[in-house]
Amino acid sequence: MRVLVKAMWMLMLMQGVAFAEMVDPTKPPPSVMEYLPNAEMQAEKPWELTALQHNGKSGFAVVNGQMVQVGESYSGFTLASVKNQQAVFVSKTGEKKVIGLGLTSYIVPAQPPAKIKAKTAKQTKKAKK
Question: Is pTM, for the whole model, over 0.85?
Fold first, then answer.
């Protein structure tokens, strides 16, 4: 019985060592993390809107305790507008984050640019007639 208990303890300790050596497959490599020193902290903390002030075309929003005026940037997004108890942030790629007071926040992904179709030879001949 004593041998069986020792064997089970050894097995459990070996499993603990195996789990300690596992790597998170979603974590960026260390070479990338040095360029993004606050990436882990920013990913963990969602945006929280605590105050809004709308003055016609201007205004500001308080996000995670930081005041951001319309036209200023916060975490790679520019505050585009403040109205209807919502702050609209836009990234350089066109992605929108709409942060609302309460539970009304959502993200609008960037839309790919529209493609312009080239006219075929038949369409060109029809247009000339």
Answer: no
